């Protein structure tokens, strides 16, 4: 009789707690989560994502279903016990510690409220990539081997992912990077082995208005020769407009453009 091996899930649940917090910049808070189970997590760098589940008021731990049908079970949970779930980028993974960077926008939304009050010992659940899975899933930065240069663009919500992508670029890989942030106080060094030219675009404290700074800066930039790969993330309407500009006006093949709306203007920023 042939035995069928059970399918290994690509993402599994990790029960963790806050180890420490660090204010990286006025608008960015780094939260380090710890837990022995994190030794079973894997990180590919790039824009590798996780799902973060937050406890409801009065709870020590969020109630989160596990297993292959977790999402259907989560959606069916009664509102009074259903934990808020948000998507974040792994900033770093070191053994049994995992870093996540939170953009702070005041007490807007459950993730913002939680981050503003996070203290060591606070417990959450993370659905993260499983080190036992033969293939690593959960990231979108996948340029073809014959890509000649990279374009990265986004607002502060994309900064953790862009920072990780830059850190993983191979030596001599050329990259043009455009980052829109709240103010010049958010500007910081971005380690990269490649040949990256980073353009910071500051709103000088003005509210985000849908990526106008990014669109203007990119439209007046001369692109290098060769085949590009573009990775765009941030406010939804802004990244859609940037993709249209690249494909229709700059001649970039649409299959060489990845874009993701991390938030929508007029809605709560998470």
Major sheet: 6 strands, antiparallel, barrel
Tell me how many strands there are: 11
Q: SSE string, helix = H, strand = E? A: EEEHEEHEEHEEHEHE
How many domain regions?
2
The end-to-end span amounts to 51 Å
Shape: globular
**Radius of gyration, in angstroms, nearest whole number:** 19 Å
CATH topology (level 3) name of the largest domain: Elongation Factor Tu (Ef-tu), domain 3
From the coordinates shown, what is the CATH architecture of the largest domain? Answer: Beta Barrel
Q: Taking strands numbered 1, 2, ... along the chain, how are they ordered across the largest sheet?
A: 1-2-5-4-3-6
Helix fraction? 10-25%
Strand content range: 25-35%
What this model shows, in words?
Helix content is 17%, strand content 33%. The protein is of the alpha/beta class and 270 residues long. It has 2 domains: 11-129, Beta Barrel (Elongation Factor Tu (Ef-tu), domain 3); 149-263, Rossmann fold. The relative contact order is 0.16.
Considering the chains and any ligands shown, give keywords for the structure.
disordered N terminus; alpha/beta; 2 domains; Rossmann fold; five-stranded parallel sheet; six-stranded antiparallel β-barrel; Elongation Factor Tu (Ef-tu), domain 3; 270 residues; 17% helix; 33% strand
């Amino acid at each position: 009789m042939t035995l069928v091996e059970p399918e290994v899930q690509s993402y599994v649940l990790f029960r963790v707690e806050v180890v420490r917090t660090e204010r990286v910049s006025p608008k960015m808070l780094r939260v380090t989560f710890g837990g022995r189970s994190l030794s079973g997590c894997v990180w590919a760098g790039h824009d590798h994502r996780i799902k973060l589940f937050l406890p409801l008021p009065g709870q020590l731990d969020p109630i989160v279903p596990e297993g292959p049908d977790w999402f259907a079970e989560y959606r069916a949970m009664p509102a009074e016990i259903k934990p808020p779930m948000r998507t974040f980028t792994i900033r770093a993974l070191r053994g049994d510690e995992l870093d996540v960077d939170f953009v702070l926008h005041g007490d807007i939304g459950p993730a913002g409220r939680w981050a503003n009050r996070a203290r060591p010992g606070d417990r959450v659940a993370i659905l993260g990539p499983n080190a036992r899975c033969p293939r690593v899933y959960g990231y979108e930065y996948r340029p073809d081997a014959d890509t000649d240069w990279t374009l990265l663009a986004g607002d502060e919500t994309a900064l953790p992912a862009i920072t990780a992508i830059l850190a993983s670029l191979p030596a001599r890989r050329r990259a043009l990077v455009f980052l829109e942030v709240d103010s010049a106080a958010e500007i910081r060094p971005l380690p990269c082995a490649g040949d990256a030219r980073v353009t910071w675009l500051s709103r000088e404290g003005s509210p985000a208005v849908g990526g106008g700074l990014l669109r203007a800066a990119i439209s007046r930039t001369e692109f290098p020769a060769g085949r590009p790969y573009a990775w765009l993330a941030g406010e939804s309407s802004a990244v859609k407009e940037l993709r249209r500009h690249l494909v229709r006006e700059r001649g970039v093949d649409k299959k060489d453009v990845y874009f993701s709306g991390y938030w929508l203007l007029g809605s709560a920023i998470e």
